[in-house]
Each structure stands twice: as structure tokens, then as C-alpha cells.
Design a protein that fits this description.
The protein is mainly β and 151 residues long. It has no helices and twelve strands.
């Protein structure tokens, strides 16, 4: 489980990713909804460089977030694509998040039975490239996070 008031991401630097890959995880948003909460996966990035996350926000929207390289005050964040989900997963209810990333920056996201929703990373894939988990203003239980390389 990962918990944070301010945005907190954890990259898994033990498993670098390259080329086309898929991330798959069973997630549970814990506790009560809070204004500004975000729960999801870091889908591309490095500890020292830019990162991209796919999150579900407090309004039940699917959001692609970009985080700039760290500076003295932390990382600045910018929202990319935002998609209103028909049936956003309720807090306390497990759901599957599947993200496919292509080497040219394409992203397809499925939340439970909704999707895939096409998006764009908006950054060049770093080399090496890592993925992980992300939470802001809440708690997130992550089960069976897996990465699979190849088409």
C-alpha cells in the first residue's frame, strides 16, 4: 500500500522497460474520497527526469499527468488528456488498470471494462525507463503489478 497527502510516486528501478510494453495492476482506492485525490500508475520515467502517470482523480476522471524534472521545489505537474469514465471505480472496490505504451509515445488505457482510451505520453521515452505507482491525497492498495514487454 502507498499513502500520501502530497503527490508521491514510487518507481521500480529493478525492472527497466524498453520498446512497447504493457502494465497491468489490480488497484483499490482506500478510505474516503478527498478533494484532489489521485490514484494510479507511473507509466514512464526516471527518478532524475520527467515522469508520466495515469490516475483516477477525485471526480472519477481518468487523467494523464506529466511531471517535469525535479527542481529545488520538487516537480511541477501538468494534466494531459482527461476522460470522464462512465463507471469510475468506487473507493474500496478493486479494479484492473491496464496501460499499453508504445515506443512512439502512444498510450492505451483500460479501467475495468471501460476502454481502451488512446492518449499520448507527451515526452520522449527515457532510456532506461521505469514504471511504478502514484498517489496524491489518499491511500492506494496495489496488487499484482506486472509489466510485459513486446507487442
Amino acid at each position: 500500500m502507498i499513502e500520501a497527502d502530497k503527490g508521491c510516486g514510487r518507481l521500480c528501478s529493478d525492472a527497466p522497460l524498453g520498446g512497447d510494453y504493457e502494465l497491468r495492476a489490480k488497484l483499490v482506492r482506500q478510505g474516503e474520497p478527498k478533494d484532489g485525490s489521485q490514484h494510479g500508475l507511473l507509466i514512464a520515467g526516471t527518478p532524475e527526469g520527467e515522469c508520466v502517470a495515469i490516475v483516477i482523480d477525485s471526480e472519477g476522471q481518468l487523467v494523464l499527468k506529466r511531471f517535469a524534472e525535479p527542481s529545488g521545489s520538487g516537480r511541477t505537474e501538468k494534466d494531459g488528456a482527461t476522460i470522464a469514465l462512465d463507471s469510475p471505480p468506487a473507493f474500496g472496490t478493486p479494479f484492473e488498470l491496464v496501460v499499453t505504451v508504445t515506443s512512439d509515445g502512444g498510450v492505451d488505457v483500460s479501467v475495468g471494462k471501460e476502454g481502451p482510451f488512446p492518449m499520448r505520453l507527451g515526452i520522449d521515452l527515457p532510456d532506461p525507463n521505469y514504471a511504478g505507482v502514484y498517489v496524491k491525497s489518499g491511500s492506494l492498495l496495489v496488487e499484482r503489478l506486472t509489466a510485459r514487454s513486446g507487442p
